[in-house]
Amino acid sequence: MAARAYWSGRIRLALVSIPVEVFPATSSSPRISFHQIHEPSGKRIRYEKVVPGIGPVDAEDIVKGYEVEKGKYVLLSDEEIDDVKLEAKKSIDLVQFVDQDEIDPVYFERPFFVLPSEENEDAQEAYAVLRDALRKTGKVGLGQIVIRGQSSIVAIKPNGKGLMMETLRYADEVKKPQAAFGGIEAATPDKDLLELGEELIRKKSGTFRPEAFKDAYTTALRELIDAKREKRAPKAIEEAAPASNVINLMDALKRSVRGNPGSAGDERGGGKAPAKTSAKSPAKSPAKSPAKARSRAGKTARSRPVKPAARRKHKAA
After folding, report:
1. What are the Cα distances from residue 257, in Å, to 193, 243, 247?
2. Where do the domains of the chain lie, and which CATH numbers do they carry?
């Protein structure tokens, strides 16, 4: 596990207090990030903290400010913010238990691993009691926490031999689905189309294997970067053939279920082979047949008027 906990404190359930340490369950390290570079010099762009009419300022002269009206702020120092006494900064009080499926997935924000504190021997037993009680009742515990100046609702649930904590969004941070979907007509799809759609879903159903999904975009970016460093052309990156435009929904669903070539977006079911992309691969226009070319040339010649100068030259010859 990581050398340093993201948060450490206690989970409290009534009079039971469990010392724990919290570690992030996700990582963004494989992602590629870019800096802004001044192209002529090759140097990185830097930003200075400046005040209009004054110029650059020192870090120790900067405090936080909350704008109460245009151009007017309430100033707060880091010490004043740290002095705000919130018990949630040091503990998570489990105040309610609910079924996990009661929580709409839109509320879930970020997952963490929760481990019993290694410095407290009694933490192991209390930790195990909470974990197994949650598992047997099928519930998750809800509480609140403050991490690095950010207050969040949290859900505590069992996961294998340990506990997971997921931060949740507050109600006012989540938009209502009725507002987003209000313009969609309440139409009932054709029965045959619906049966084909269900059959296609059944055909593509399986267990969730996250390792089967690859980040092709990051792979292509990495290859482009490596190619430029090595002064070579980027290697072709295989990707699925683009889906054809759906003209007839019934026909598209039938072909998708059968796995026929040309089925929209079905590269596993006998569709077109994956296309390869490279740095420069301009599409070639289809060759024209000699007969069509002669016919087109003849039409062009007949429709083009003879210039007067050309007629005079012909007579003189």
Report:
1. 12, 15, 16
2. 7-28+84-173 (2.40.290.10), 214-277 (no CATH)
